[in-house]
Amino acid sequence: MAADSPVLETRALVKRYGRTTALDGLDLRVDRGEVFALLGANGAGKTTAVKVLLGLTRPTSGNGELLGLPFGDPEARRRVGYLPELFRYQGWLTGGEVLRLHAELAGLAPQRWADEIDTVLATADLRARADDRVSTYSKGMQQRLGLAVAMLGRPEVVVLDEPSTALDPLGRHELRGTIRGLRELGTTVILNSHQLTEVEQVCDRVAIIHLGRLLAVGPLTELLSAGGIRLRASGLGPDAEAELAGAGDGELERDGPWFVIPGATEEQIPGLVEMIVRSGGRVYGVELMHPTLEERFQQLLESA
Amino acid sequence: MGKAGAMACLWTIARLTLREGMRRRLLLALGGLSLVGVLFTAWGYAELPNLPGARGETRLATDQMRLIASQLLILVMFMFSFVLALAAVFAAAPSVAGELESGEMLAVLARPIPRLSILLGKWLALAIVVVVYAVAATALEFGAALLTTGYHPPHPIEASLYVAGEGLVTLALAMALSTRVPPVTAGIVAMLLFGIAWVGGVVGGIGSAFSDPLVGQLGTVTRILLPTDGLWRGAIFSLEPAQMVLAGAAAGPQIAAFPFYASAPPPFVYVAWSVIWVVGMLAIAVVSFERRDL
Predict the structure, then answer these.
(1) Contacts of A75 in chain B (CB under 8 A)
(2) What pTM, to 2 d.p., does this model score?
(3) Is B106 at the interface with chain A, CB within 8 A?
(4) Which of B18, B22, B292, B293 to mutate to test binding with chain A, by most A CBs within 10 Å of its CB?
(5) A251-273 burial, b if ≥16 CB within 10 A, otherwise e?
(6) What is the pLDDT of chain A when averaged over all its residues?
């Protein structure tokens, strides 16, 4: 596989379960070494997309490749680690035994097992509990074990489906550190999430999907930057107000003491502040408005 | 993945399934309770020589006692074959469906292993348990009867194998159902079919006894569709002493209505059909599992 060829490519993927359409012509491209998020509300089709690329579910139509191989190809699966959204490991096995089982199933050479298992146990902070049965683990520990299983054997691609579901704030912080660590190793990470805060700190690119369709893809700052500016100022004359209105792409709105300039961007802030001060006004505060994910969904749906 | 890789995965899953049976104390419970059952029936056999005879004798004649022992043994073996079928269903019904429901299997299926290896690995492990249980339980039961009454069935090995075969048929059925329906449904449907097959055999026997060919054929049809009852008839015949077979033949066609009597062993072609049935059911299970969307 060439270095510049994508790790994942999907073309017009459609998946229907009876009358329900889970994927509706999904096109994706994920490049090597990037942390890529599939962001969308529950039921958007994120988990189905992941299951298709791992060969757990067959697409109704469309196709694509993972690591240059057809979906579900054993060779591709050998090079992928996966943390499912809803999972449970065998409660009657110890954490170490679960990892040994997956080392065996993943086809790792037996002489590598001990080192690889030790590495992921350390990363998941589970070394001290490796000999305890999984049934005695807390939900957060089971989630960390899942992460350890996904990272076992240094796969080229790690697919994490809602990885922070059972984690406390500290666990989420550590998860972000783990994902950054994977990126430093050159591992491609595909992350499913419905939480904006989860993806914004670690992802290089984000695909927003809704009802199985791709609404937008790109760096998150780009996708969410069209929110406008809120500005609190006094002593504005009619000319200054007109100039503020002209900076945005809609009508100037008032929200108590705040002026809301829809569509204005971060780059316009210094010029607008300078203009107000020059005209004799005073500025008390400026905020860049990020739309919520829901608002952005709405905007993207309307523009679609 | 080559054949060697698929076989290695199959064996990994089989070992995992056996380990689960041991860790979850399934094997201990099955073995322990069956041992209690053997001891209990051994005590019953030991009491047989103390029964008074029908013509006022203080003790039963040896021949009579052994005849009663042979009938008791058939009843006890019926219990074991039922327990075995029940255990096979309980173990196989959740083996795929339960693990899919709980999410246990998702991470395993994402690994580079064929679904065929997972399914056959699980079946192999449970089949080992079924065969070992059938052989051990019947051997212990035969031993108990021999020690206490001096009676031993004419074809003990065949009887064990027929009972084991019955378990293997039930196992394949429950496993195939488990690839498509939830564990409870798979278990109930498999047990119902097992029960229907047995009743079908009994009703068919009654049809033969009263010369009703249509009702008689019902037994034949159910035995072909699900070979559990046909194999059980093989176990009965293997357990019957020669005098019982002769007495049955002398009693005329009405004896066919008696559910714990068999006038002949199943023909070879039927045994072959049972093997084909198990292989075919496993093939259906594999295809069904391969095609299942998760």
Answers:
(1) 112
(2) 0.85
(3) yes
(4) B293
(5) ebeeeeebbbbbebbeebbeebe
(6) 88
Cross-chain Cβ contact B103/A87 below 8 Å: yes
Q: Do B294 and A51 touch (CB under 8 A)?
A: yes
DSSP string, A258-295: EEEETT--GGGHHHHHHHHHHTT-EEEEEEEPPPPHHH
Q: Is B72 on the interface with A (CB under 8 A)?
A: no
Residues of A in contact with B111 (CB under 8 A): 77, 102, 105-106
Chain B positions touching A90 (Cβ under 8 A) are 16, 20, 104
* CA–CA min distance A86, chain B (Å): 6
Question: Of the ranges A180-194, B51-65, B84-98, B241-255, which one carries the lowest mean pLDDT score?
Answer: B51-65
**Closest-approach residue (CA) in chain A for B25:** A92
Size of interface A-B (CB pairs under 8 A): 66
Contact A67, A80 (CB under 8 A): yes
Query: Are the C-beta atoms of B233 and B201 separated by less than 8 Å?
Result: yes
**Which residues lie below 8 Å from residue B137, measured CB to CB, with a gap of 6+?**
B34, B38, B80, B84
Kindly provide the ipTM of the predicted complex, given to two decimals: 0.86
Query: What is the three-class DSSP state of B56?
Result: coil
Band (A304; pLDDT cuts 50, 70, 90): low
Confidence of residue B25 (pLDDT cuts 50, 70, 90): confident
Is B294 close to A56, i.e. CB distance below 8 A? yes
CA–CA distance, A46 with A192 (Å, rounded to integer)? 6
Q: Which residue type, as a one-letter code, is found at position A64?
A: G
Kindly determine whether residue B107 and residue A57, on different chains, have CB atoms separated by under 8 Å. no
Structure token pair of residue B197: 């097959």
Q: Which of B257, B265, B264 is nearest to B216 (CA)?
A: B257
- Specify whether the CB–CB gap between A172 and A164 falls below 8 A: yes
Query: Which of A86, A88, A106 has its CB closest to that of B111?
Result: A106
Q: Is the pLDDT of residue A58 over 70?
A: yes
**Which of residues 35 through 54 in chain B touch A, CB cutoff 8 A?**
none
Q: Are A295 and A273 in contact (CB under 8 A)?
A: no
β-strand partners of B273: none
- For the cut 90, the answer to whether the pLDDT of residue A303 exceeds it is no
Asked if B114's CB is within 8 angstroms of A74's CB, the reply is: yes
Residue pLDDT, tens place only, B80-100: 999 999 999 999 999 999 999
Question: Nearest 5°: CA angle at A186, between A183 and A192?
Answer: 45
Rounded distance, CA A145 to CA A125, Å?
9
**pLDDT tens digit string along B248-264?**
888 777 777 788 888 88
Q: How buried is residue B4: exposed, middle or buried, by Cβ count under 10 Å (0-12/13-18/19+)?
A: exposed
Distance from CA of B114 to the nearest CA of A (A): 8
Q: What pLDDT score was predicted for residue B92?
A: 94
